[in-house]
Design brief:
With 63 residues, the protein is mainly alpha-helical. The protein contains 3 helices and no strands. Helix content is 52%, strand content 0%.
Length: 63
């Protein structure tokens, strides 16, 4: 996927907690590249939800 760093640079200007980094790793381990098994109602941190919306908005991933 492209754009992984862009979301952090453009939309998130605060430090990212270690917990969020750990959950990001879990996200990449459990959610497939097409995001077909991603659930917005899941317990993902807000930053990950924003990242997924970015991927949809930029048509990097189809809804």
């Amino acid at each position: 996927m492209r754009g992984e760093g862009v979301i952090i640079e453009n939309r998130h200007s605060k430090a990212i907690s270690m917990d969020t980094w750990a959950q990001l790793l879990e996200f990449f381990r459990t959610v497939d590249l097409e995001l077909s098994n991603y659930g917005a109602e899941g317990a993902w941190p807000y930053l990950i939800d924003e990242f997924v919306e970015y991927l949809y908005d930029k048509s990097i991933v189809e809804k």
